[in-house]
Amino acid sequence: MTTATARPTGARRDVLQGRIKWIVAATIAYNLVEAVVAITAGTVASSAALIGFGLDSTIEVLSAAAVAWQFTRRDPERWEKGTLRVIALAFFALAAYVTATSLLALVGQVDVQHSTIGIVLTALSVVIMPFLSLAERRAGRELGSATAVADSKQTLICTYLSAAVLLGLLLNSLFGWWWADAIAGLVIAAFAIREGIEAWRGDACATSVGMLLEDEHDEHDEHDEHAHGHESKS
Prior knowledge:
By secondary structure, the chain is mostly helical. The chain contains 7 helices and no strands.
């Protein structure tokens, strides 16, 4: 016998929805700052990994903005496929750019400079991102929001990328392993390709959107059934 999980209603539901909105807003704001600082510091230090990390943060912000725009439309499902394709192409472009710059850095043996700002930034991301991901995942599960849970997983992926870039920067600074930065860049490119393929197929986002739309449709059906029931009784 399958037991359905009760979803929160009333005041608790409003609290959870508000919490998710604040978490998403904080994540977007942090990613914007992260992108500007990482790209600037990466340019100064000639770090392909830092620049790629900043560009990935930019795409994460654009992705969230695209999904938010989608849900302002009258028929969100109609715009779903196009939105996902745009996001996928952005990730593929990021992967191509970072792969090219990382390979050129390896072939040309580019001397990557020490970047204190880059190390501090990626270290902060390793600490902050897991907390944001956990908070959004807990609220999303209690609320029954597949989209919030999926978004929390994307935030967790940013933590892995931060750790990879941080490791590359530290190895370069401590041991002079200039090639570690380029390897970290290739790790980012691999993650970008993976996310791009998922977005193109609609494996994560499309499923989440579909579940939410289905839930909303079911709620309307239940409401209509109750209304018809009251009418028949009267």
